Structures are given as C-alpha cells and as structure tokens.
Amino acid sequence: MGRSRSRSKSPRRHHKSSKHSRKKSRSKDRSSSRSRNSKHVEKSKERSSKSRKRSRSASTSSTSDASYDGSRRKKSKGRSKMDEVDRLAEMERQRRVREAEQKYESKRCSSLLPVHYAHLSIMQEPLPGTRSATTPSKILKVVEEEAAKRIELLVKKRVEEELEKRKEEIEQEVAKRVEEAKRKMEIEMMQELERQREQQRREELARQEEEARKRKELEDIMAENNKKIEEAQRKLAEERLAMIEEQRKMDEERQKLKKEQEKRVKEEQKKILGKNNSRPKLSFSLKPLS
C-alpha cells in the first residue's frame, strides 16, 4: 500500500512541477508580448508625433509664407502642395504595407489552423499513467498564445521578406503617384495662373474703360465750359460794341448840338452887329398936325 501511494504521489508532483513551469512560461510569454506591444505602441506614438510635427511645421510654414507678396505666396503654395503629396505618398505606402500584413496574416492563419487543431488534439490526450489535471480551456489558451506568438513572428518575417521583394515595386508605385500628383498640381497651378491673368485682364480692361469714361466726361465738361466762356465773351464783346456805338452816337449828337448852338450864336451876333445887311431898315414918317 505504501509503495502504491508513493507511486501515485510521484506523478502528481511531476504534474505540479510541469504546471508551475507552464505558468512561468506563460507569464514570461505574456510579459514578452506586453513588452512587444508596449514597444509597438511607443513606435506608433513616435510616428504619430513625427507626423504631427511635420503637419505642424507644414501648417506654420504655410501660415508664415501667407504674409509675403504674390510670388512668394505662389511658391509657398507649391511647397505646401509638395508636402501634401509626400504625406499622401507615405500614407499610401503604409496602407499597402498594412494590406500586405493583413493578407499574409490571413493566409498564414488559414494554413496554420489544421496544424494547431491537431496539436490541440494531441495535447488534450492524457499521458499514460497520469491523470488529466489540465482543462481543455487552459490547453486551448496555451495553444492560442503559442500560435499567436508564432504567427506574429512568421507574419513579421514574411512581411519583411515581402517588403524587401516588393520594395522596388512600391517605390515605383509611390514615384508614379507622386509624379501624377505633381502633374495634377502643375495643371491646377497653370489653370489658377490663367484664371488670375484673365481676372487681371478683365480688371485692366474695366479700369481703362472707367478712365476713358471719366476722361470723356471731363472733356465734355471742359467743352461745355469753353462754350459757355466763348458765349460770355461774345456777349461781352457785343455789349462793348453796343456801348461804343452808343457812345459814338452820343458824341455825334453832342457835336451836332454844339455846332447848331454855335451857328445860332453866330447868327444872333450878326443880327446884333448888323453885318451883311442883316439889320432891318428903320422907316420914319411924320404925321400932320390937325
């Protein structure tokens, strides 16, 4: 009986030690996965901070360049568009990388599922001479963790290989998209310049028409003023001529009156002096006395 008990105790101790070792390995795996996740999170944070810094620098540069004149504005607009193109190209590259990772992970998971299920069925079978102390859920959890680790490593390796293989293709695609974006941006800039030239041409034409209209109005006003001045001068000249004519007539009348007066005075003097027998003869007659 003692021997049977000692024999029965030994596998239990073995089972407990294996269970502790599994727990330790599981905790190690969890800590390593957590450290990897934390590193991945830190890297993603660094990338997001870098992208924010780039976007902030781009925005600050665009706002600072907006205070310059027209030519510098166009240059800053071109630079901001180039930064936008680079950012879009980087986003497209990251999207392609994520798609490749997801595609590879799905393929790898589909290929590894039968192996893991077979492994699970093997692990669920109890060892000969031992009791099955572990539950199927714990075994499944261990298998899933191990499978997740292996899948992660395989996916990482496969993604690196795939990226290395398709590096030139991705770079060509990115260069192609960048070139298309540049071409589109150049077309838009040319169209914008053409619109600005057309707007300036219309504004210049409107300004010239306004200046011509104002000039014509001024010329009309000056012509009207000149006409009024000429009319006033003509009236003034006519009035002056009329005054001169009236003065002449008055002078002639005065001269005529003066001559008549002098003539009358002379005639009276002649009468008084009796010159030229102008004096009447006196006749005397005697009346008889009665």
Automatic annotation (TrEMBL):
Skewed-composition ranges (Basic residues): 1-27
UniProt biased composition (Low complexity): 57-67
InterPro entries, per the entry: ARGLU1 (IPR033371)
GO cellular component, one term: mitochondrion
Domain of life: Eukaryota
Biased composition (Basic and acidic residues): 39-49, 80-107, 247-271
One family name in Pfam for this protein: ARGLU
Region listing for Disordered, in residue ranges: 1-107, 192-227, 247-290
GO molecular function terms noted in the UniProt entry: cadherin binding
Transmembrane segments: none
Protein name (Swiss-Prot/TrEMBL): UPF0430 protein CG31712
Source organism: Papilio xuthus (Asian swallowtail butterfly)
